[in-house]
Write a structure and sequence with these properties.
- With 269 residues, this protein is of the alpha/beta class.
- The chain has a single domain, classed as Rossmann fold (3-Layer(aba) Sandwich).
- It has 9 helices and 7 strands, in the order H-H-H-E-H-E-H-E-E-H-E-H-E-H-H-E.
- A 7-stranded mixed β-sheet has the order 3-2-1-4-5-7-6, with helices on both faces.
Amino acid sequence: MQYDPVKRRLGAVFNSTPFLRKVFYRLLDLLLLRAWHIQKELRVWAKDKRDRELVIYDAGAGFGQYSYWLSGLSRKWSITAIDVKEEQVADCNAFFQAIGRPQVKFEVGDVTKFQQPETFELVVCVDVMEHILEDEAALRCYSTSLKTGGMLIISTPSDQGGSDVHGEEEGSFIEEHVRDGYNMQDIEAKALRNGFSKVEARYSYGAPGKISWKLSMKWPLLMLQASKLFFIVLPFYYLIAYPIAFVLNWFDVHTKHATGTGLIVKAWK
């Protein structure tokens, strides 16, 4: 499945006003289980840092969801957000200027090449590594750009059914992925040989998360791809499905999983 056509349709609606864009971010925070996991880790990271002037790098920022969330935690944090899509970068810059958050700057760039040595205290990389072939080049750029002691946080599919692949004969549900998922030990080893001194990884999207993802993301996206009429049906679908997905998300975030279709990786320079 290709997400971009669906993304373009959603973007045409939610980019029309700053208010609708904020609603869009809030919906992403509620629906995307990876956002629940990433925000949990970032709250821990930010616990004693909100009064400090810090510099953060949002690598492969996409719609700018995480830059928006982080910039809401502290006005003292400066955020540099990089993405390859010029139109998306322009939209994000216009939005952040409109809402009075000039400390967030978006730039067109490639995460496998962008470097600002010894600059950032935090690098956030969500839903990116599975899209790039030169993943070790990206990791080297992240470590180079971090200050000593700085942290990288990654969310990416695992090789335990990530991208909705469950057998060698299956292809990825999401065609834009260049790999179906990471082996936990593999991504830890790649981080350690590309400038990081310590790595912690854990599974996300365990048994509750797998069901939630189908309810809140996979099936709705398949419906939207099939017909624009499902944009009308979707609110009624979520009235029934989302309360179930919410409970499943909570259990997924608060449970340690022996296996899962996602990975949360933290690495320190």
